[in-house]
TrEMBL record:
Entry protein name: MFS transporter
Span of domain Major facilitator superfamily (MFS) profile: 1-411
Keyword presence, Transcription regulation: no
Species of the source: Amycolatopsis minnesotensis
Pfam families: MFS_1
Keywords: Cell membrane, Membrane, Transmembrane, Transmembrane helix, Transport
Membrane-protein topology: Multi-pass membrane protein
InterPro entries, alphabetized: MFS, MFS_dom, MFS_trans_sf, Sugar_transporter_CS
Bilayer-crossing regions: 12-33, 39-60, 72-91, 97-117, 138-161, 173-192, 226-244, 264-286, 293-312, 318-336, 357-378, 384-406
Intracellular or extracellular location(s): Cell membrane
Length: 428
């Protein structure tokens, strides 16, 4: 079960990150070259466009997940993401089919956004709802580590392709290979997820007929404050994380600091390993000192490291880039590892998928949607990456403050019969 949640999430985010990284390294010249100096900003903006469709994916998957089950949604979102990714690898460039090329690219990116919006909630709940009460933080961290593993795979495949091709070959056709390889991952993920048992908590809901016919109605009637607070907490992690997952650091290091592309991708891979370890540590620690306490430690680390991080990156020294990214990952892991357990314990069973998925999706819009675009625009307009650091510091403070407006409920029963329905029982 934990393996299925982790593997599926890994595949989803490999697909998602391949696009984000190529937006910074490839798409500006292959699809948006007519825009001249604004091509890179628009290329990053296509990353953000998909985020606006995440809430739609979350609403649809959340409704069906609360009505039909978590397992079915995991399979559907996996297929949607995988097929969209393979098709991106087949889209002709603007030089071949003109304006139709960027339009097709954006449509497929939107489909990725719909999938990403619905996938996380199902994977997180499947892991947490199967977990013993005293190990939900650790179990819930496994779908979370699918993100750094996906980042590791995406950067690794791109680094390998970059090393095996000339710069001209990479831009001409090499970048397509990672997208097309997704078909292998789709088959593997589909086989694993079709063998997973449904969440025991949802099975109880099915037996007791405690399902809501329209989960969104009770969710926003009784728990809208949780949706807002949960979104703000995640937004602070997501904006910072998208400096690497959204391709900004890779693009800045290659194009502004003139570092070798393969070397930069390897540095990001090393940081992904550090992020994986710190995410697992965050989940494990959340079972011992509480979800929100771990979050707050992570936010403080993010805040304290923000400006030293950019100072080290800006040196153009590859060893210091490694150090900057590794320490950068510590705060990210501590503000990501406890998330699945926190979100699952925030909402009653009948609206849990909808609540978790929508909080996550809105947080992604507020935090990560245009973080690379904002970062690129700030750095271009001010001439310094410290403007980017200031922007991320503000977002981090907002997340830290928001964490004080939700109740920590570790170990609380997740079954339908033990639900506390009142909104004020879950917020402070």
């Amino acid at each position: 079960m934990v393996l299925a949640a982790m593997v599926g999430t890994t595949i989803e985010w490999y697909d998602f990150f391949i696009y984000a990284i190529c937006a910074g390294l490839v798409f500006a010249t292959q699809f948006f070259t007519a825009l001249g100096k604004d091509a890179l900003i628009l290329s990053f903006a296509t990353i953000g466009i998909s985020f606006f469709f995440r809430p739609i994916g979350a609403i649809v998957a959340g409704h069906l997940g609360d009505r039909l089950g978590r397992r079915a949604m995991l399979i559907l979102t996996l297929l949607l993401m995988g097929i969209s990714t393979v098709l991106i690898g087949l889209v002709p460039t603007t030089g071949s089919i003109g304006i139709a090329a960027p339009i097709i690219l954006v449509v497929l990116r939107i489909l990725q956004g719909l999938s990403a919006g619905g996938e996380w909630g199902g994977a997180a709940l499947l892991a947490v709802e199967h977990a013993p009460a005293d190990r939900r933080g650790l179990y819930g961290a496994f779908p979370q580590i699918g993100v750094p593993i996906g980042l590791l795979l995406a950067n690794g495949v791109l680094a390998l392709v970059t090393a095996l091709t000339t710069p001209e070959q990479f831009l001409a056709w090499g970048w397509r290979i990672p997208f097309l390889l997704s078909v292998v991952l789709i088959v593997a993920g589909f086989m694993i997820r079709t063998r997973v048992a449904e969440s025991p908590v949802f099975e109880e809901v099915r037996r007791t007929r405690a399902r809501s016919s329209i989960p969104l109605v009770p969710l926003f009637r009784h728990h809208w404050r949780l949706v807002v607070v949960g979104a703000l907490v995640f937004a602070a992690n997501n904006a910072v994380g998208y400096m690497t997952t959204g391709g900004y650091v890779q693009s800045y290091a290659v194009k502004s600091l003139h570092l070798d592309r393969s070397t930069v991708l390897i540095a990001v891979m090393v940081s992904a390993v550090a992020w994986l370890v710190s995410t697992l540590a965050g989940g494990w620690l959340a079972d011992r000192i509480g979800r929100l306490r771990v979050y707050r430690i992570g936010f403080v680390v993010q805040l304290l490291w923000m400006f030293p991080f950019f100072a080290l990156v800006d040196t153009g020294n590859i060893a210091l880039l490694h150090l900057a990214l590794i320490l950068f990952a510590v705060g990210l892991g501590f503000t990501y590892g406890p998330q699945a357990a926190l979100y699952a314990e925030m909402y009653p069973t009948s609206v849990r998928y909808s609540g978790a998925a929508i909080s996550y999706a809105i947080g992604a819009v507020l935090g990560g949607a245009f973080a690379p675009t904002i970062a690129e625009a700030l750095q271009t307009s001010t001439g310094t990456v410290y403007a980017v650091g200031a922007y991320l510091a503000v977002v981090t403070v907002i997340g830290l403050v928001a964490s004080y407006f939700v109740e920590d409920r570790p170990g609380q029963p997740l079954s339908a019969t033990s639900d506390v329905r009142a909104d004020d029982a879950r917020t402070v």
